[in-house]
Design a protein that fits this description.
By secondary structure, the protein is mainly α. The protein contains 17 helices and no strands.
Amino acid sequence: MLEAAKGVGSLVDDSPDASPPTHDSDGRPTRTLPLTHLLRISLYWLGISTVWSGILDIVNGRLQFTHLVPQGSEGLGAFQIALIGTFIAIAVQPTVGTLSDYTITRWGRRKPYIFVGSVLDVVFLWGIATSNSLAAVAAFVSLLQFSSNFAQGPFQGYVPDLVPAKQVGLASGLIGLFAALGNVVGYVVAAVAVWLSATDPNAFLYGTMAIGLVEFLTMLSVVIHVDEGRRVKPRHGRSWLAIAMEAWNDEVLHERSFLWLVASRFFILTGAAIYPIMSTFYLAQSFGMDAAQTGETKLLLLAVVGVCVTIAVVPSSRLSDRVGRKKVIYASCLIGAVGLGMGAAAPFLPIAFLGAAMFAVAAGAFLAVDWALISDIVPKGSTGRYMGISNVATASAGTVALAVGGAVVMDTVNRIFGYGSGLGPRAALVFGLICYIVGAALLRPVVEKRREDDDGLVEAAS
């Protein structure tokens, strides 16, 4: 068994002569951590993002070019594949995150969940890769949602648990960077799979297992090298079932800023999901490309996106430390909406590329700052639970983007104006633009107040 704060001292200096104390009353480090520790804490996001960006794009490629569904129903097919898994993600992530807040093992609180979930991810990715019917693909995607969120819920407690308040902005930037790079890696693997599928029927299988390998390696880096070191919440004799149900009690309704932030994240992430999810359909339908042309063009597009995301992430996180998190998120919403509007109206590929570059800058800025804002305001002692609840927005955003942007908007417009018109994917991008505007509006009631501010008030009063 681990002692209450065992592991914190391995991250920071906790010798008897150290002054000031190495961690606060909540078990959170107060001394500056080396960059290597911040990188290890954040690295698993590379694997998570690679899996989900890659698998959704690979599935969309199979829908478009292998005819798992009738022509003109690609959006509906993608939605059907994602639907059940979304509800699984919403239920699993907060519940398992809450359980991890109370878990005591030799590995720590979070690592057993991360390890088991990642291993199962690889198994279920194999199932997706070898399935040849819409129902089978949907079943394995649902199982993948379960295993992935089994790992993600606990993992998301790392930044609030292990990173000093003064380094949250930097840690959030690193998370955003790894998440963005993971998206790029996943999309690149998917684009290569689509490109090779024109000549190699096993291309989608190879691509699917490649993204699983990336996640497995990043998981090993976290499990082997990260020391969790945070006090465990006492169970007070309660059963594990009672602990699991705690994730869904009405206490969260009193956290008004947190609820507004979750709502805002949902719409912003839905808008941000539109371009990646629609990219294969957009290039194939709006610009009349075949599988090889779509794959080649996506590789060029991803090169632009990768550079722009990488450039935007770290400066955005540092800027948010100076001007505030919300201002940076407002700017990202504006830039993202403009980028989607350009993509929707683009008559030529160069304009579409410019819109994608603006969209990538916006996505990088949001990924960098959003995590810091959540870490600032989540209640103490229940980080696994609240970070899991916050990711309900992440889990459902992609499915809503598929349901409304794909199955409703894209397929309906294609039926009205004709499949060959290419207007369906363009209309879906307009829907994403609207989501950005709504997300920015819902951010307004959120109060930027850091958790450590409450400690300062208590100490001053004493």
